Amino acid sequence: EGKVAIVTGGGGGIGRVIALRFTREGAAVVLAGPTEGKIKAVEKKILENGGRVIAVLTDVADEANVERLVAATLSEFSKIDILVNNAGIAGPTALVPNVRLTDWERTLAINLTGAFLCAKHVFPHLIERRSGCIINITSIAGLQAYAYRSPYCASKWGMIGLTQTFAEEGGRYGITANAIAPGPVRGP
User: Fold this and answer.
1) Which residues are CB-neighbours of 31 under 8 A, at least 6 positions away?
2) Which distant-in-sequence residues (6+ apart) come within 8 Å of 5 by Cβ?
3) Cα gap 61→51, rounded to integer Å
4) Is 97 helix (H, G, I), strand (E, B) or coil?
5) Of residues 146, 148, 152, 173, which has the active-site annotation?
6) Minimal CB count within 10 Å: which of 10, 61, 120, 157?
7) The pLDDT of residue 186 is above 90
8) pTM
């Protein structure tokens, strides 16, 4: 109740469900995603249910986009309490020698660097308030290997280390950081 949460990848799947639940619990939500139609559809549903929400077109792998996301959140709601790093892509399914470098780089840019960039720009606001929560959505693929999914697995294993680092650095400021590692989920 009364919290402000940024949910990356908020236009569908796990992010959509998290955003809807947060608003049912009384939080204001900022939906971040790269597909305007998807985040606007979730925004519309939340508004129809009486929730407080804005949708911000965001590529989490682009630092200027992330800075704009944080600025829009503060402009609309004046604070940030929760960051949910949910944005992610599956990346290629291929034997390691067949993974193109561009696919490797894009998967890590969205799944791991995006979480870093969002935390980098949200952390100062959480530190100032001496409270907050970062929730990183990783995957079971961050806990065990999956053949033919090297970029995805590397990004999700990296998310575990990033979460532990956020917890270590944020704890002294009252900031918690946790990772959720779901298994396969039903798609849209």
Assistant:
1) 7, 10, 11, 15, 19, 39, 42, 43, 53, 54, 55, 56
2) 19, 22, 27, 28, 29, 30, 81, 82, 83, 84
3) 28
4) helix
5) 152
6) 120
7) no
8) 0.95
Q: Which two tokens stand for residue 128?
A: 């100032």
Strand order in the sheet with 53-57: 53-57, 28-33, 4-8, 82-85, 132-137, 175-180
CA dihedral 27, 173, 135, 4 (to 10 degrees): 20
Pair of tokens at residue 187? 């798609």
* Distance between CA atoms of residues 71 and 125, nearest Å: 11
Q: Is 39 helix (H, G, I), strand (E, B) or coil?
A: helix
Sign of the CA dihedral 59, 65, 71, 72? Answer: negative
User: In a 3-state reduction of DSSP, which class is residue 94?
Assistant: coil
Would residue 148 show up in a list of annotated catalytic residues for this protein? no
